[in-house]
Amino acid sequence: MFLVGGFSESKYFQSRVxxxxxxxxxxxxxxxxxxAVVNGACEYGLNMKSISTRVLKWTYGVEIAPKWQASDPPxxxxxxxxIKKFSLMVKKGTEVNATDEYSQSFSPPEPDATSLIxxxxxxxxxxxxxxxxxxxxLLGSFNIELPDAHLGMxxxxxxxxxxxxxxxx
Length: 169
Fold this sequence. Notes:
This protein is of the alpha+beta class. It has helices at residues 11-21, 33-46; strands at residues 53-55, 59-64, 85-90, 95-97, 101-106, 115-123, 136-145, 157-162. The protein has 2 domains: 6-50, no CATH class; 53-162, Substrate Binding Domain Of DNAk, Chain A, domain 1, CATH 2.60.34.10. It is elongated, with a radius of gyration of 23 Å.
């Protein structure tokens, strides 16, 4: 076991870890444990291939606004007859490779729409239904222009989330 980071400089912490685990495994403490974290961050920044997978800490998705249905909560109905919901794209706990992509196709909300706003959200929950639930966070948003309104609803937009380096195409 390697003890790294600021708290690993504590002699008390080191002795407690050694007391608990030294009979089972070897304990290593570098001379300056906090520097090990910086070295790792620098190595990753210089060579992102040094980490091939990671386990997601958050559940990621996008805010959507489908038409309100009778089965939806009445208090969530917006004045335009729609409801804001969370469309899950990838769950927390998923092990992802640096080149994995998680995609979902979206269509314009109306046939004559000229743009589509994507609002990316994340939560500590495994799943969520609504964008205003507790623990729901905003990651960011952006706007996509939708030319060719004469195509109506037949203008799909593919949204892709990546959690590392992007594959070359």
